[in-house]
Amino acid sequence: MTPEPQPVRILFVFAWLVVGGEETEVRLLAANLDPDLYRIDVVACFRKPGMPEQTHEQLRALGVDVDTTPYDLSFEDTVGYLAGKVPGYDIVVSSQNVADIYPALERLHLRPPLIEHGGLVSEAEAGPKHLTNRYVGVCRSIRDAAASRMPGREQHALEIPSMVDLSEFNSANRSVMRSKLGFRDEQVVIGWVGRLDPKKNVEDFIHAAALVVRDNAHAQFVIVGGPDAFMPDYADHLKDLTRRLGLADRVTFLGDRKDVAELLSAFDIFVWLSRGEGMPHVIAEAGAAALPVIATPDNGAQQQIDDQVSGLFVPYNDPAAVADKIRLLAGDEGFRRSLGQALRRKVEASYSIEAVLPQWTQLFSDVLAEKSPQGPTGIFKSFLMGGFECSTHRLRPADGETTGRRLDMIAAIEHDRFAEQDYRQLAGLGIRTVRDGFRWHLIEKSRTYDWSSVLPMIEAAQKTGTQVIWDLLHYGWPDDLDIWSPQFVDRFAAFAGACARLVRDNTNEVPFYCPVNEISFFSWGGGDAAYLNPFARGRGFELKVQLARAAIAAMEEILLVDPRARFVHCDPVINVVADQSRPFESGVAEGHRQSQFQGWDLIAGRMWPQIGGQERFLDIIGVNYYFNNQWIHGGPPIDIGHPSYKPLSRILAETYARYGKPILIAETGIEDERRGPWYRYVSDQAKRAMQSGVPFEGICLYPIANHPGWDDGRACQNGLLASSVSLGGRAVDAGLSSAIQGSVD
Q1: Are 64 and 40 in contact (CB under 8 A)?
Q2: For residue 743, is pLDDT > 90?
Q3: Strand ranges of the sheet holding 8-14, from the earlier edge strand across to the other edge
Q4: What is the arithmetic mean of pLDDT over 349-355?
Q5: CATH of the domain at 335
Q6: Which phi and psi angles does 706 have, rounded to 5°?
Q7: What's the domain count of the chain?
Q8: From CA 221, how far away is CA 208, in angstroms rounded?
Q9: CATH code, domain carrying 157
Q10: Interatomic CA distance for residues 9 and 13, integer angstroms
C-alpha cells in the first residue's frame, strides 16, 4: 500500500519533432537521467508531411511517452489540450519557442515551473518571458539574447551547451563504414551533416567541392541530411547544382540517417558553413569523432572551436576560402589529427554527458526549490472532516415490487437520533467539520415542509460547535416528482431556499451546502448504467445537464435567503487509461477522463452557459476519491502500484490548476484492514499536493461511520466509527485511528 517514491515528472513541449540539437538533447537526457529520480515525457504540437520521424522512434525506444495528439488539433484546441496536460508535471521544458505553451499556461491557476530551451538567438529574442522560470540557451549569445528580454532577472537566463554521448563514437568503425560507403583508404572524405536548410549554406560546400576536385583526385564529398519540411525545394536545388557542376560522382547525398556517429567515423574532414545558428550540435559530434572542422565563425561555433587549434574558421559565403582549407587539411594528415584531437578534448571537457548532465539536474533542483508550498486557508474548522452517508434514493424494484425500497442511511445508523453524541465524539477526535444531509423525501410532503427530521441535527451542530456542509440532494427525491421534468428544477430550488431559511434562522455561522452530490456519478449511474434511480440508459448527459440546472437554481434561491452561503460541489475525480496492448484507444480513454469535469464546468458556465452557470457558483471543489476511481478503458480498476496509476497528488494539482478554487477531498475511504493504509496514502498525497502549490483545505473521511450496503444491507466496515451506538459513543476503528494519529504526528 505504501507508494513508491515519485520521480520528478518533466514534460518537454516541442513545436515539432525533427532531427536536430534540441531533439538530441532530450533523447540524451531521457537515456541518462536516473529513472528513479526523473521521468521525461514529450508532446509535439505540429507535424508537416515530409518531416522525419526517427526522433519519435528513438524516444519511444527509451520508454519516453511521445504524445502526438496535437498533430490532429487546431491551434486553439492544442492550447486547450496542453492546458489540461501540463498540470500533471513537476517541470515543463519548452523547446523551439513553441507558440502554444504560453496561452496554455495563461489558462492555469497552478503552473509548473517553465524552462525554455533555445537553440537560436531569434528564438531567445521572440515571445514573452513573464512565465519563464529559466531560459536555457545552448551558447553564450543565445543566453545573452534571452537575458536582454528578462530585465531584473537576467540571472535566470543560463547557458547549458548541448551534450554529446561519447560512447556512440568509435574510431574502430571507420574501416567498416568506409567500406559500406565505397571509399578507398587513399581517398579523403569531406563530410557535411544537417537538415537541408538554406541558412546552412550547403551550396557553398558544393561550390567548394567543385574547386577542390579540379586538382585533387582523391577528394570525396558526402552530404548527410534530408529536406527541410518547410523548404523541400532546397534539397532539389542542391542536387541539381551538383549535377550542373559535374559532381555527381564526387558528391554523395545520403539523406536522413540514424547512424550519424558511425558515418562521422568514416570522414576525414568536417565542414559547417551555417549563418544565424545557435551552437551547432553537429560540430560537437564531429569533435567526438576527433574530426578537424572547417566552420564559419557563427555564434556558438566560436565557443566550440579555437581557430588553428581545434578547427579552422572561414569567412561567410566564401567557397574559395573553404576550398583552400580543405586542400590544406587533405594534404596534411598530421594537422588533421592535431585539430581533431584538440576538439575531442574540448568536447570531453565541455560537451560530454558527464559535463552537461549535472547542469541539468542542478537546474531541475533549483526550479523545484522555488515552488511555494501552500496549506489550508482556514475555510473549515478542521482539516480532517467526517461525512455521514446520507443517501436516500430508491433502489430498483425487486420482483413483485412496483417501487424499489427507499434507502435512508442516516436513519440506518441512528445518526438522526444521536447527532449530538456523534458530533461530540468527532470533536474529541479533532473533527470539527462534517458533511451531513437534509432528507428531501422526509421534509417535503404534500407541498409542505416538515423539519422534524433535520432540526434536531441543526441544533446538535450548534450545541457542539460543529461546522456542517449540508447535502441537499444525495440521490433521493420525493416520490411525486419526475426528475426529468422542469418541475423538478423548480421544486428543488424552492426546497433549497426553504432549507437556507431554516439554517439561517437557527444558526449564526456561515452556512455551507452541497446542492447536488456527485453530478457526474449520479448522471452516469442514473442516466447511462441504469444503476441508480431513474435507471435510464443513454441519457447520462441529459441527466447531467438537468442536475446542473437544478443545482444552479438552488444556489440562486439560497443566496437570496442568505448571501453568506458557501457551496461545495462534490464529484469524483478519475483517471482512465488505455490498455498498453490497445494504444489506439487512448483518445477514447482520455475523453472519458475529461468528462469528469463536465459537472463543474456546467456549474461554472464554462459549458452550456445557457443553463445559467456562472463562475461564482463554482465556489469550493470537493473531489471524491476511492480505490476504484482509476481504471483501464474497457477493463478493470487499477490500484496503487500499477504502472498506469496516476498519483492522487497529480490529480489534485490538475484539478486545482483547471479551476483555481479552494479544493478538498470531500469523500474518501475503503473497507476493512485497508482503512489505515489507505488514509496514509491519501494524507501523503494531500501533503504532496500542498508542496506543489495547491491550497488544499482538508480530507473528509466518507463515510465516517460504518453503514449497511446499498444493495444488500451487508455491514460495510468502511468508517472510523461503528454503525451501532453505545452509551460511550460509537466504537473507533483502531487501525484507521492509528493512521490518523500518525499523520498528525
Answers
A1: yes
A2: no
A3: 65-67, 38-44, 8-14, 91-95, 114-118, 134-137, 157-159
A4: 96
A5: 3.40.50.2000
A6: -55, 155
A7: 3
A8: 10
A9: 3.40.50.11380
A10: 13
Do 221 and 133 share a structural domain?
A: no
> Tens of pLDDT along 163-203?
999 999 988 889 999 999 999 999 999 999 998 989 899 99
Judge if 443 and 339 occupy the same domain. Answer: no
Q: Are residues 108 and 187 in the same domain?
A: no
Indicate the residue among 369, 402, 433 that finishes a domain: 369
Using DSSP's 3-state secondary structure scheme, residue 207 falls into helix
CB 659, CB 602: distance < 8 Å: no
In a domain, 379, yes or no: no
Helix/strand/coil percent split, the chain, to 5: 45, 20, 40
| Pair 176, 105 in one domain | no
Instruction: For the chain, give the mean pLDDT.
Output: 94
Residue 143 lies in a domain: yes
Residue 3 has pLDDT above 70, yes or no: no
What is the structure's pLDDT at 268?
Answer: 96
> Under the phi-then-psi rule, with left for phi > 0, alpha for psi from -120 to 50, and beta for the rest, what region is 74?
beta
Instruction: Give the residue numbers spanning the domain of 736.
Output: 384-744
C-alpha cell at 394: 430508491
| In a domain? residue 2 | no
Confidence tier at 4 by pLDDT (50, 70, 90): low
Residues 171 and 198 in one domain: yes
Q: Any idea which residue has 581545434 for its cell?
A: 310
Asked whether residue 389 falls in the same domain as residue 466, the answer is yes
572 within a domain of the structure (yes/no):
yes
- Please check whether residues 340 and 424 belong to one and the same domain: no
Measured from the Cβ of residue 478, the count of other Cβ atoms closer than 10 Å reads 17
CA dihedral 67→70→76→81, nearest 10 degrees, is -30
The answer to whether 220 and 184 are in contact (CB under 8 A) is no
The pLDDT value recorded for residue 744 is 64
List, in sequence order, every residue forming a beta bridge with 200; answer none if it has no partner.
none
Residue 554 Cα distances to 114, 168, 500, angstroms: 41, 67, 10
pLDDT-above-70 percentage for the chain: 99
Q: Summarize pLDDT for 364-386 with one digit per residue, the tens.
A: 999 999 999 999 999 999 999 99
Per-residue cell: 398: 425487486
Question: 426 and 365 in one domain?
Answer: no
What is the SS3 string spanning 25-51?
A: HHHHHHHHCCCCCEEEEEEECCCCCCC
